[in-house]
Amino acid sequence: MAGGSADGANRADGVNGPGGLGGGSTGRERESAALPEAMRRDVRLLGEVLGEVISESAGADLLADVERLRHAVINARSAADRGGSQAAAAGDEITALVAGWSWERAELVARAFTVYFHLVNLAEEEQRVRALLRRDSGDRPPRESLADAVSQLTAEGGAGYLTELLAGLRVHPVFTAHPTEARRRAVVASLRRVSGLITRVDDPRAGAAQQAEDRRRLREEVDLLWRTAQLRVAGMTPADEVRSVMTAFDETLFRLVPAVYRALDEVLLGPQSGAAPSPVPPFLRFGSWVGGDRDGNPNVTAAVTREAAVIQAEHALRGLEAACGRIGRALTVYESSAPPSALLRRALAAAASEHPGLLAEITARSPGEPYRAYLLYAAERLAATRTRNLDLAYGAAADFAADLRLVQSSLAVAGAVRQAYGELQHLLWQVETFGFHLAGLEVRQHSRVHARALAELRAGEPPSAMTQEVLETLQVIGWIQRRYGVDACRRYVISFTTSADDVAAVYQLAGYAFPDGDGPLLDVVPLFESGQDLANAPSVLTGMLAIPEVAARLADSGRQLEVMLGYSDSAKELGPASATLRLFDAQAELAAWASDHDVRLTLFHGRGGAIGRGGGPAGRAVLAQAPGSVDGRLKVTEQGEVIFARYGRSAIGLRHLEQVTSAVLLASSPSVGARNSIAATAFADLAAAIDDAARRAFRTLVEADGFAGWFATVSPLEEIGGLRIGSRPSRRGHGGGPLGLEDLRAIPWVFAWSQTRLNLPGWYGLGSGLAAAAWSGIPAGDSDGDIPPEGLAALRRAYHEWPLLATLLDNAEMSLAKTDREIAARYLRLGARPDLTERVLAEYDLTRRLVLAVTEHDRLAANREVLSRAIVLRDPYVDALSYLQLRALSALRAGEVDEAQQATLERVLLLTVSGVAAGLQNTG
Is 374:326 a contact under the CB 8 Å cutoff? Predict the structure, then answer.
């Protein structure tokens, strides 16, 4: 992190400043040299600036300590590359180095590496944006683009088939408040400003004076970032979480949505895009659990849900109002050049009659400009809708959309087609997508809560506080629908649904909340999470058909039904391999059930950001789904750090939505469905062998005597709550008694394991599963334990022919690539359980060996060059934070710190947790 010129060791690093990339290791030097020059320049600049800031604010001696640790971890990586006992010896030297610092010094060093990772992440993001802007400059459509999907689908089924598929297309991300964003909002805001300055510094058009000013501002912002507390002092409230998610809507999504539609429009219409009616339907919808998910979170109340709906509507209406005003002011089409239609003239006359003063004021500013006048009038009506001026307000979003279509039609008939189908079409797409409510607010509650509330009410007892809260929540749903429309809040998700009675309970509770029968329209969504519940899902749905309210909704909605599948809890119960395979089987069975019962089923995928919670590349996951389970529709959760990683920058958000949409289109084609069906049948026995052995290995570990306590000892599990990254407790608690591992939520389970550098939830059991599958049907004989060649060949064939298995192995490989065995072993030894340590590391070694053997890769993540390079370059600096964390964790576990030092020690631990999360770019 040295400031100044890059010489000596810093030159070898490839980048100077706080994190010279590479340095000391030939492999690292090679990876550093392979970095794009623009990214190298950005990292070098940010490193230099951070080094200067640290030296100025905390002294050159702190910078020297940071550099000593930096070189030590780089040298340790070189020792690890050479093998033998040198890695352990190097690790011992680093342990001794960090043990020699005071806790105050350790805290400053941890902050330096944490801030560095934030800046490196920014540089990588900038490079990704550059790459995305260049990607479509070739002659062929970019891979995983809308153009590529349209080309393939048209070739397969013709233009008519594509039109039919687009008509039913729906992509529905749902944002959740799951606490996986470890950064404070203040840190995120600071990084956003630094990002803007990096972009400007990169601008070759800027003159010398402007460049100098931008660099001065960059130093000022990095200095502010260094001085900004990296940890939250107060916990987040649900309202804070709502406002945090609103940032993504305000800064990118509102403008991103029409960009996605326009990209598809340009593919379909070519040069006529913007000059002809668009064939692109508004296929995007957004949902939110933020302020609505109360499962195990007592902080989310009926009042919070109501406030969340109000905040969302405020942001939607402000966005529409600003866009309508902007477009209206620019639409200076003179009436003689495009005479308004009779319908538009009548609408203007009616507006003048109802609001003469307002129309007189508008037309005085826009004489002879009827289109401008009517859109400015519409903008005033949007403002009135937001401020609840009911005399002028719109009754519903559909009324505003009708006004836009009126203006669009008049312009088109008058020959001003580019004005009709350009920016005005963008605004129409926005209101069709967001309405006046922005995102459909969804309520979630545990089935056990409903059962207890219903039992109380049926017994005629005075409702407890819990039951009263359930009834008030249903009443708030009714209020939201009356104020913002049915789509603003109609889905009610039931966690751990085990029977149709759990679904019926919500409708029965609504009857108690609205005894006069004037309750809200509800779509109750069963959530299947455990292995047993996934297996029982079709029979539960059959039972739902007999519920009168469900039958009525099916009749009214064209027999549409939604079912949610929980990836996080199923993986925590079964292990990653078994959960993946059983979720695939469940999807296939549900698709078959829907076909048998003439139901248009939407599967809602409750995926987390981390691989241990169903995360991974979204497009590939969609293409690996069971045949018939997509059918043009995808609904999926987007959580925590994933929201800002995918939607924090417009170019990245556009690419993500293009990838997902193209995958949904392709996954709905007969060819992809047939491929997945044939592969699933051909490799069914192999999958069963993997499932059985992987699940047994995973359950044997987590059911071992004392495992829960051991896990809490070897990881910062209990301390993670101190990050205050969400309003939700880390454990569920719906009843009395001690809380066990089953009550632990999936996010802290994954987050804590990632901190140990083991990422256990992303791979554990897979090695045992692959080994069992390789031996399936082959006599063991007197084998020495090596995998039989014919078994390995079968696994390799499955990997190449079955997208599901390829996704499973590639995701596990990515998870393994972010691990470090030497450091992980140091964490595991804190638990003083050599039996568990040995079991975990043996499964790690087996899984790593077999994943590489099946994929035929020479190193982990070899087929993902950018990721592999990033991991190699980041690893030493993550190591630095891990050694600091190990020191703090060891002291806490041993009770070695006096009360006066306790607060500082805890800050050191939490800073390293935040820094490791930034370095690995995942939490939970």
Answer: no
What the block records as the tokens of 105 is: 């010094």
Residues 6+ away with beta carbon under 8 Å from 515:
none
**Confidence check: pLDDT of 690 > 90:** yes
Reference 568, options 444, 742, 745; nearest CA is: 745
Question: Rounded to whole angstroms, what are the CA distances from 272 to 278, 423, 848?
Answer: 9, 15, 52
For 525, the enclosing helix (H) or strand (E) is strand 523-528
Tell whether the model's pLDDT for residue 11 goes beyond 90: no
Q: Which residues contact 115 (CB under 8 A, 6 or more apart)?
A: 18, 50, 225, 226, 230
State whether residue 602 is helix, strand or coil. Answer: strand
If you count DSSP H runs as helices and E runs as strands, how many of each does the chain have, helices first?
A: 39, 9
Q: Which of 172, 178, 315, 446 is catalytic?
A: 178
- Range in 42-46, 421-425, 769-773, 822-826 the model is least confident about: 42-46
Q: Does the annotation count 800 as an active-site position?
A: no
Three state DSSP letters for 403-443: HHHHHHHHHHHCCCHHHHCCHHHHHHHHHHHHCCCCCEECE
Residues 721/706, Cβ–Cβ less than 8 Å: no
Place of tokens 């180095």: 97
Q: What are phi and psi of 858, to 5 degrees?
A: -85, -10
User: Going edge to edge, which strands form the sheet with 600-606?
Assistant: 440-441, 287-288, 170-176, 633-639, 600-606, 560-566, 523-528, 491-495, 443-446
CA atoms of 344 and 108, how far apart (whole Å): 66
d(Cα 323, Cα 326) in Å, to the nearest integer? 5
Residue 120 is encoded by which pair of tokens? 């490196």
Beta-bridge partners for 602: 562
Q: How far is CA 123 from CA 200, 248, 367, 401, in A?
A: 13, 20, 50, 41
* Mean pLDDT for the stretch of residues 848-866: 91
> Cα torsion for 292, 297, 303, 306, to the nearest 10°?
-10
Q: Can you name the residues that pair with 601 across neighbouring β-strands?
A: 561
Name the percent of the chain in helix, strand, coil, to the closest 5: 65, 5, 25
* pLDDT of 888 above 80: yes
Q: How far apart are CA 838 and CA 843, in angstroms?
A: 9
Does residue 426 carry a catalytic annotation?
Answer: no
Question: pLDDT tens across 285-342, in order?
Answer: 999 999 999 998 899 999 999 999 999 999 999 999 999 999 999 999 999 999 999 9
The token pair that represents 882 in the structure block: 């891990």
Is residue 804 a contact partner of residue 676, using CB atoms and an 8 Å limit? yes
Rounded to an integer, what distance in angstroms lies between the CA atom of residue 302 and that of residue 241? 16
Q: Residue 175: beta bridge partners?
A: 288, 638
d(CA 522, CA 61): 63
Judge whether 313 and 252 are in contact, CB under 8 Å: no
Best CA proximity match to 684, nearest among 530, 566, 794 = 794
Rounded to whole angstroms, what are the CA distances from 528 to 535, 619, 626? 9, 23, 17
* pLDDT given at position 787: 86
The number of C-alpha atoms within 13 Å of 857 and in the hemisphere containing its C-beta is: 21
Closest CA to 630 of 654, 594, 684: 594
pLDDT confidence bin for 649, thresholds 50/70/90 = confident
Cα-based distances in Å from 462 to 188, 459, 896:
47, 9, 51
Choosing from 172, 355, 437, 572, the catalytic residue is 572
Model confidence pLDDT, tens digit, residues 179-222: 445 566 778 788 888 888 888 877 778 788 888 888 899 999 99
Distance of CA 55 to the CA centre of its chain: 37
